[in-house]
Amino acid sequence: MELTPRTAAVVGGGIGGLATALHLRSGGWSVDVFERACALPATGTALGLWPAALAALDTLGVGARIRDLSRPQTSGAFLRPDGSRIAALDVAALQRRTGDTVRLISRPELLTVLYEANGGAVAFGRPVDDIRQLEDAYDVVIAADGLNSAARRTLFGPRHRARYAGASSWRGTVGGDTGAVTETWGEGLRFGITPTTGGRTNWFACAVAPDGQREPGREVAALRARFGHWHAGVRRVLEQLTEPEVLRRDLYYLDPPLPSYVRGRTALIGDAAHAMTPDLGRGACEALVDAVVLARALRASSEVAAALRTYDAERRAVTRRLVRTARLMNRMAHAQRLTGLRNAAMRAAVTLGGPPS
After folding, report:
1. Beta bridge mates, 59
2. Beta bridge partners of 266
3. 206 φ/ψ angles, rounded to the nearest 5 degrees
4. pTM above 0.70, yes or no
5. Where do the structural domains in the chain lie, given as residue ranges?
6. What Cα–Cα distance (Å) separates residue 6 from each residue in 9, 275, 291?
7. CATH for 7-71+106-162+255-331, among 2.40.110.10, 3.50.50.60, 3.90.1150.10, 3.30.950.10?
8. Taking the chain (357 residues) in consecutive chunks of 10 residues, what is each chunk's mean pLDDT?
């Protein structure tokens, strides 16, 4: 007698949603993925995949493919605007400790690998406005609908929402290979540069600014006014910028934190559960780990409720710590006074060890 497969609905076809669907499908589950957008994104900036995220990708069976497409981070440093060093990252120590290193890949490349591994089985152009409507039709529902999660609002109310972190960001890529990862900190300003695939350079900039402030048609000019007197590495990026290629977004984090990542037979993962500022470079990584932990628990248990409790117990405390750490890092990076003390504290933190791998 053939058993009827258990069923899951995944709301959100991003990194966490696709990873969850892939792991459940490989365990014999029938999975429907609902994605609001009409297609995968064609453009996007670089992601850093930490060892725990690479281990999650190995579990999903796509780790080797990601390693082929990505490139290792071989160095890293925090700099002052004149180019002098605040602190250097000990990349070799991370590799000795974990057996792996951070690898850099563009978001579209990672999404494409996960999408193809799922056999392209995603329902694009299918928003889910009330996630509760899915619970009667599926054994479990996974909300992976991002920073402004409609599922989170429906299940936990508007109090738990994305809050403005006090800084705006600009992102993009330019031609040429920088070869090194640097983040330069000034007074309420910072500028990050990383290599990415295809021989290009990924960059981001942040500045303390009012929520929603924009300078249409003048974002490049605004960046050059803020950062044009910084060191040569920053200036090389600024010289290549063109207005259409600059993406500007404000920085947000989830506050207050959710009391649980589970409500009924629905689980929240990734930014829907624990949106954090990008200061640790861990958002995509934690979504991948969430996906593997949740799907593994569901595959191992005959009771959905027990599996969801296991997921919540394993992931909520650690991700809440990361949200707090990222927020602290964000405040430090955008300090407008006492930057000498800020830099000394950052140097001590890097020397003593960074976040979990």
Report:
1. none
2. 141, 263
3. -135, 150
4. yes
5. 7-71+106-162+255-331
6. 11, 29, 17
7. 3.50.50.60
8. 80 98 98 97 88 97 97 90 92 79 93 98 96 95 98 97 96 86 94 89 95 94 97 96 94 97 98 96 96 98 97 98 94 88 82 60
